Give the backbone structure.
Amino acid sequence: MSKKNPNYRNSFADKFTRWVKGDYDPIAGQMEMNAPDKEVFGDERIRYVHLHIVKSNNYSERMFEEGLAKNVRRFTGLYKVFGAIVAIFIACLLLWTVSYLPKFGDPNAPENNEVATRYIEQGLSETGAVNIVTGMILDYRAFDTFGESCVLFVASCCVLILLRVDKDEDPESRAIEDMNDRHYEPRNDTILQKVANFLVPLMIVFGIYVVLNGHISPGGGFSGGAIIGSGLILYLTAYGFEKTQRFMNEKVVKALTVGALTFYCFAKSYSFYTGANHLHSIITPGTPGNILSAGLIVYLNICVGIVVACTMYSFYTLFRKGGI
Amino acid sequence: MGSFATNYEEIAAVLLFVIGMSNLVFQPNLLKKIIGLDIMDSAVYLFLAAKGYIEGRTAPIVVDGILDASHYINPVPAGLVLTGIVVSVSVSALMMALTVCLYREYHTLNIDEIMMKLRKEED
Amino acid sequence: MAFVQNFPFFCIILSMFSAIISFVMNGRVAKYIHVAMVTAVLILSLATLSFVVGTGESYTFMMGHFPAPWGNEIRIGELEALMAVFFSLIMMLSVFGGMAHIDREVQDSKKNLFYILLDLLMASLLALIYTNDLFTAYVFIEINTIAACGLIMIKKQGRTYVSALRYMIMSLVGSGLFLIGLTLLYSITGHLLMSPAKEVLEQIVAVHSYQVPLMVIIILVTVGLGIKSGLYPFHTWIPDAYGYTTPSASAVLSSLVSKGYIFLLIKIFYRVLDFDSVISSHMVNILFVFGVVGMIMGSVAAIKEKNIRRMTAYSSVAQIGYIYMGIGLGTTAGVVAALFHIISHGAMKSLLFISISGLTEVSDGRSDYLSLRGAGLRNKVAGAAFTVGSLSMIGMPLLTGFISKYLFAAAATTAGSKMITAWVVLAISTVLNTMYFMRTVLTLYRPVPEETHKAYTVEKSRIETAAIIGMILLNIGLGVASQPVIKVIEAGLAMFG
């Protein structure tokens, strides 16, 4: 019956039969199946290998010839014994302490005092956040959390100092970085791209969901931001830098980070200032349970999410090719 | 010495802390040092999480309008762990970046070899 | 609440905000922002200091709408305001003094990041000074550590990477121990703010429960912060870290970063753990021993060192030993001496590091003794500055170092059995200081034939000269008019309790 079909050739069933027989390859020509040709890299690659591998071998050979390693070996034994003694001492000290601490899961332990009680019993009415932990870190202890965002910020500044390669200053290492990236980047890998097409929107939407619902369910800026960041990283891995840099380049990352942190800074300054001076604050908790409730918490969560997502993404790109 | 037999979580956390710390200090390999650092930090978070737990209670997210402190565990350690995780992410990223730079400069991950090469440069 | 009482909070937020905004600026604008920020912090802190001295009592400032055991807080007393004034002053002078070096040694595209690090360092130091919350202290300790690591490796050479790595490893061990100490403290008191935690601890001490955890907490917190501030057996990262980075960064690192941790330690001793229980745990005796050993060993290592910047860095080890010896005496007078030495060592060390940069500049950029011969004649301002700094370190009257040593010696008289040891070690350390600093000064003024260094003319930078003169004046001022400062320290310490 089916053989009478004039469109049988190139139909799905035909392709399937031929695939079973082995004379048709559905992904031929669409995916990179062999190792990249050597000409693609040519001399550059040899130079790269020379720079990173051959040279290092020479180094270590020379070092062993000079017999410097003997000194190290002599000390290593002593060092190990010393290390073990110190570690055992600290372990015993801490175990001894643990044995005097309150029992695990004890409801009468000292830390379950009026602080935790107030967070639970009045947190909802004072901050408007159903998730008490979010209410605690973004309202009661917001200064800590601002410091924490600054830790991320300062770490990304340090990584920028260490790893960013600037075009104008050092063309040689720039070229090495580019080559390094091209060498490891899967070029137009169909499987990866198809999976990314499916997963990236899902991850980013889920991340946004987690960020926006930080005050009414488990989640918040940090976890949501990390999910969005990993979505961006997956997109980058599948489609390469050229496509990603259309919407996530250095300017965008910088603007987003600075904008989010500035908003955080001003919002919290306002609430610290009014709080300490006993002024009336225009920020109200709203109706608990709504998306737009809990005063500033939802906006602060968005800011934190942006900062975390940008930082994760820029960490990845900096490590991979020395530039955002 | 009353609670030594009941504080399994704390004991595990303390042992992991010491393992992580001795890896951080005494391992010559830089990557293993970073792994040690992460173990050490996670151990502290385990300790905090164990401190926050109260037998038979649920996570501190208000459900069905129950606002009774005897229904939820202590929310403070959870917040501290959250803050701590972010700090340790930043520190690990910084250490990784330093490791990358050191590897480019000296072509080895072994801190002893790096020190020897440094000394040779000086001479 | 008077408007002045908001100023410490403004200082912290201002320095954080200038760091954030510098991220999108270029290096030059970031520099102006930094200078404006530090000047503003200095002025605001002076206003705070005069306000607090005027009222004579401390106050707490809620960070948010919730009072003590629930929300974050900062606390402002005379001592905190004084430290903020000096830290911002020394920061300003150090950055001005090394401005030309920063322009030369930091890549253009990374200058704004360098100033971000300095801004955040200022913010974290202010937060460490003012904080009344232990976990806030931990977060800002980490900011301080990461920013300091950035300052160490800003020159991007292999050697600076190694020193940054060693610094990070030691610091991370320190913060790990501090954090687990904090966790234990939380688990026996249930509070993270200092004042409520102290109240609970007083009850605990009164009924003799949790004695072992309390002792271990004291050990962990002290050792953690001791490692981070470079106490003697954990000092191995100091010479590398201070020795090879850009001069402003060296000055800031040696005179401010490690002092922030020591100040926090003193604060925790007084405001959380109760100094009496620290004394009865014998932790002060251990600090005394390590401090004394550090004083001697640091000086001995400095004598052996041929590189003048590393020598000055080893001298920092010895000076940190002085501070811990002061704390270790276990008396209020000892702590007052230690706090005064925090300020005076900051003034001396920043002067020395900045002047060394001027001296190496005229000696082919080398910093060993042989090349430095006659450098004081080639660059007269830097030579004079180094001489003043050295004399101050040795303890010449009319300079700030003398007052520190006098205070330490006077504090030792009331310390009972530690008196003789403290005096002997102070004397030995002074002799050793004299040996290496006078040797350096003599080298600097030994005439050499003109031809050897003719190509190197002194690069006249008015702003650096002004900063060096400012530091010299600070050293003399602290030496001549030390009484008001000591009075403020004593009053502030009394407010701590």
Remarks:
- Chain A touches chain C through 58 residues (CB under 8 Å).
- Confidence is low (pLDDT under 50) at residues 37-42 of chain A.
